[in-house]
Amino acid sequence: MALRHAVLAALLDGEFSGYQLAKGFDIGVANFWHALPQQLYAELSRLEGEGLVAGREVVQEGRPNKRMFHVTEAGLAELERFAATPAKPSFIRDDLLVKVQAVDGIDPAPVIAQLQERAAVAEAKAEVLGKLLVRLRGEADEGEFLRTGRRIGPYLTCRRGLAFERETYDWCLRTAEILRQRVVTVRSGE
Amino acid sequence: MALRHAVLAALLDGEFSGYQLAKGFDIGVANFWHALPQQLYAELSRLEGEGLVAGREVVQEGRPNKRMFHVTEAGLAELERFAATPAKPSFIRDDLLVKVQAVDGIDPAPVIAQLQERAAVAEAKAEVLGKLLVRLRGEADEGEFLRTGRRIGPYLTCRRGLAFERETYDWCLRTAEILRQRVVTVRSGE
DNA sequence: TCAGAGTACTCATTTTGTTGAGTATGCAAT
DNA sequence: ATTGCATACTCAACAAAATGAGTACTCTGA
Question: What are the sequence ranges of the domains in chain A?
Fold first, then answer.
């Protein structure tokens, strides 16, 4: 059950509402823990019930009120406890890889198309993450920031996400190219 | 529901029992779709019920009988259909990244230890995948194999897995080093 | 003025994934 | 002789994640 911890980690950056998390999750924490809005709302309620986060109602005009949450002492202690328990091994879990695995038995055309599309998505995501990196370190150069910055967690995970997206981009394009070449080869009666 | 398709894709390589899949899943398809033995057995039964795979009982001596499964025509058609439906975006989902994200608020020592451990796991996995790559392409050089081999799906996904593990390895070591340096910096009263 | 998009959520259900405990047999080492 | 490991599975219960369908109000543009 790491969604709760992902939420706690995200709330280390300040006060957020469920709605804000649901938006921001896509660029920040969502690089390594994706969740739907409904899950976030539910998790925040549960965390509040357990006293790991505290919420306050913010009355707004011209738009619905919202609840802003922050981590409590108990929440921080829970994060601490979580960080000290052994991590589970991670793995990629991806539809598209399943399709590529099966590509020898089926029509490669839709797989090629999806690889192309995925490459574009990965490129766009890489750009967003690259910009986020710049924003996170501010003025300082990277080495300096990593040595002395006081909030480097998001920076470090963002670097991982960026490397992943770049890797995805490269692999998708190379794989698509290989499959395209084979279609040509087979057609020319190799 | 891509587990079923991962199983179908795995069965493209021949006939396997649930037990064999449960073992082999760790090195082949499991690079992008992890599953516990129980899930595989259950999925195979379901697939058999739907006629997407067919099983036959193999009587053995000195050990329990087993059921060997292969993909049927209908199963292949299902894979074809699956490959043609748009892929969902993928993302990393990883405990350890959550911990790194939170590292500014907690004790970094256990996080550093887990990064080190994860690097070792990734290195070992990368080596296994590297060997698998060599085994899959056999005598041929890579370019030749990719152009003319008749079963390249597993090779292509294996390359992705290898790149991922290498990336994980690098990131873990670099991140651990950065965190270690900071501990020193803080201690020396920066 | 009315459709559409944005803010801010809730509730219910289903689908997946995980955990834990069994069953049964044979082989090899202690 | 008995422990422990490998083969080959099954069943039940639970936790987590994904899906779908709302609610309600406001602002903006056609």
Answer: 3-84, 95-187
Residue found by looking up tokens 């090195």 in the block: B27
pLDDT tens-digit profile of B74-121? 999 999 999 999 999 888 999 999 999 999 999 999 999 999 999 999
Listed as ranges, the nucleotides of chain C within 7 A of a protein C-beta are 6-12, 15-21, 24-27
Q: Which residues pair with B71 in a beta bridge?
A: B53
Residue A16 amino acid letter: F
C-alpha distances (whole Å) from A161 to each of A147, A155, B103 are 20, 10, 17
CATH level 3 topology of B3-84: Arc Repressor Mutant, subunit A (1.10.10)
Which has the closest alpha carbon to A45: A5, A13, A74, A4? A4
Task: For residue B156, list chain A residues with Cβ-Cβ distance below 8 A.
Answer: 100-101, 103, 175, 178
Contact B81, A99 (CB under 8 A): no
Distance B63 CA to D11 C1' (A): 22
B69-102 burial, b for 16+ CB within 10 Å, e for fewer? bebbeebbebbeebbeeebeebbbbbbbbbbbbb
Residue-wise pLDDT for A58-104, tens only, equals 999 889 999 999 999 999 999 999 999 999 988 899 999 999 999 99
